[in-house]
Amino acid sequence: MIAVLCMAGLSACGTDVSGAVGPAAAADGLTIQGDAGSPNLIEDFNPYAGSQLHGTYLLYEPLELVSGFNGAYTPYLATSYKFTSPTTLVYTLRSGVKWSDGQPLTSADVLFSFNLLKKYPALDGSGIWSQISSVKVSGASVTFTFIKPDVPFATAIASTPIVPAHIWSKIADPATFTNLDPVGDGPYVLGRFSPTGYVLTKSPTYWDAATIAPTSVTFPAEASNQNTNQLEVASGQFDWSYTYLPDIKTTFVAKDPGTRSYWFPPGGTIGLYLNLTKAPYNNVDFRRAVSLSLQRNQIALKAVEGYLGPASQSGLILPNLKPYLDPSLPDQGVVTQNVPQAMALFAQAGFRKHGSRLTASNGTPVDMTIILPNSYSDWLDAAQAISQQLAAVGIDVSLDTPQAAQYLSSIYSGNFDAAIGGFGGTGSPYNDYNNALNGSFATPINTATTNNFERFKSTAVDQALAQLAGATTLAAQKKADYTLEEQVYSQVPVVLLYYGGSWGLFQTTRFTGWPSAQDPYALPTNYDASILQVVSHLKKA
Predict the structure, then answer these.
(1) Residue 116 in contact with residue 123, Cβ under 8 Å?
(2) Which of 7, 87, 105, 483 has the highest CB neighbour count under 10 A?
(3) What is the rounded average pLDDT of the residues 36-41?
(4) Which of 291, 394, 283 is closest to 341 using CA atoms?
(5) Is the pLDDT assigned to residue 223 strictly greater than 90?
(6) Are strands 396-400 and 367-371 parallel, antiparallel or unpaired?
């Protein structure tokens, strides 16, 4: 999906509790595009709520941040972690951390925060307590015991925000608490809020305040009109935007090439999911033939204007996760169109071309319906290119483009032939493979699942996932990864097509240090925890 998350430019430059927050910031202030008003912002700074404002990530810190780009850990409230066994994870907390009201942050706050998620499951969006059995503290150490080996789940624990026990223990219902007067441990505190925008100001009690360059961060409310949003981004209203703009070098960079830049790294893979409970999609030769029939460069060019290229059929997002790539895979796992080889595989699967149509041995022509949401423009462009390319090998493709809710209902329940969808993007090979391939998600048709929509089942894959879950060394992790990569490459559970982008646009008028291909320390996504890592990394221009 091309994410077009932009803000409207507002004429007012000042702010007060009842007035608008303008897009302009002081020389040492930062302006970020991202929060959507409908038509006004809803004030919610609960760090466990799914609807919280993006600035919440600057108010509350986790133990560590995990990069969505490559899975690297950056310490925040914790200085280190280690697995003393595949089921025991120990964090060492940073000393001298204070809450914004001046109270010290201790291991008791960490214990309270995780027990809060246990007491109120509605807050446990990452399913922490489905994977751990206990949390214990001793001095500056916090020990998590897992129900079973699950080393990659450390990412979810590390990313959990910590809240002050002396405040939250007095809240009647934390699940509905909107936290209008937040007391946090992050680099900022809430300055002013109005329905048209809000301002965060630098916290004087923050443990690393000396390194935080912006003295304030302004979040104007985003307009509902995407064309207006794109115009405001192109005109330079924001220091940091997350927006897809066509012909980015002309529409954005050329207006001030000395201070404007962008980075569009792959943030996930877009693939063609084939329903493996149906013939002929349950035939691996047929799936391999479909894969070889496709010209991925052309699909990527039409879908994302060539900003990103063909995806590796290994299942890894490259170059983000290249250190895990099996060097024995040809061309880093990227499949090149080969129609003669595709036709040979179709024949091996029992299908031959008669006239313009590919037919089964009984003469039945092969048809395929691809479902995708009608509002995802890049997916639609990709599906149209796929339709044309498969028509050339004799498959008649029709597109089903319902609203997003109906699309999700169809793929969750397994009522589809083929579907365009996302694969991976967590920054963790294990999480990417587990979500897409774990046989435990392969529910019967008409029984909803939230992962493995194609209903892939493989003993070899499930065993490799279990090995990877318990691997505490890089060598052991790579061994399991290589098995998973080979299975995705050879069995084609999903036909992987092209990389979907993360659309980061930056201005260096006030600040430098934005993530880039040369310094890919985080994805340029300003709507998730990456915002804390990026803002912490900025320097004054």
Answers:
(1) yes
(2) 7
(3) 79
(4) 291
(5) no
(6) parallel
User: For every residue of 181-208, which 3-state class applies, written as one string?
Assistant: CCCCCCCEEEEEEECCEEEEEECCCCCC
What are the helix and strand counts (H, E) for the chain? 14, 23
Which residue in 193, 89, 224 sits closest to 144, CA to CA? Answer: 89
Residue 149 is encoded by which pair of tokens? 């080996």
Please give the pLDDT value at position 175.
Answer: 93
- When pLDDT is averaged across residues 370-393 and rounded to a whole number, the result is 96
For 186-195, how does the pLDDT look when each residue is reduced to its tens digit (9 = 90+)?
Answer: 999 999 999 9
> What DSSP assignment string belongs to 220-254?
EPBPS-HHHHHHHHHTT--SEEEE--TTHHHHTGG
Residue 493 token pair: 């559970």
Of the candidates 489, 502, 498, the one whose C-alpha atom is nearest the C-alpha of residue 299 is 498
Give me 473's structure tokens: 């060394």
Whole-number Å distance between alpha carbons of 96 and 134: 26
Residue 24 pLDDT grade (very low, low, confident, very high; cuts 50, 70, 90): very low
Q: What are phi and psi of 175, to 5 degrees?
A: -70, -25
Whether this prediction's pTM lies above 0.70 is answered by yes
Strand 351-354 relative to strand 73-75: parallel, antiparallel, unpaired?
unpaired
Instruction: Retrieve residue 21's tokens.
Output: 């927050």
Residues ≥6 apart with Cβ < 8 Å to 293 = 337, 339, 342, 389, 390, 392, 393, 395
CB 228 within 8 A of CB 7: no
Across 195-224, average pLDDT: 94
Structure tokens at 342: 């595709």
CA dihedral (169, 175, 179, 180) in degrees, to 10, reads -130
* Amino acid residing at 219: F
The residue type at 395: I
Query: How far is it, in rounded angstroms, from Cα 427 to Cα 408?
Result: 23
d(CA 265, CA 286) in angstroms, rounded, equals: 32
CA atoms of 326 and 316, how far apart (whole Å): 10
DSSP 443: P
Rounded-to-integer distance, Cα 20 and Cα 231, Å = 20
Tens-place pLDDT, residues 71-100: 999 999 999 999 999 999 999 999 999 999
List the end-to-end C-alpha distance of the chain, in Å, as a whole number.
Answer: 33
Cα–Cα–Cα angle for 44, 45, 47, rounded to 5 degrees: 120
- pLDDT, tens only, 287-328: 999 999 999 999 999 999 999 999 999 999 999 999 999 999
Instruction: Please give the single-letter amino acid code of residue 496.
Output: L
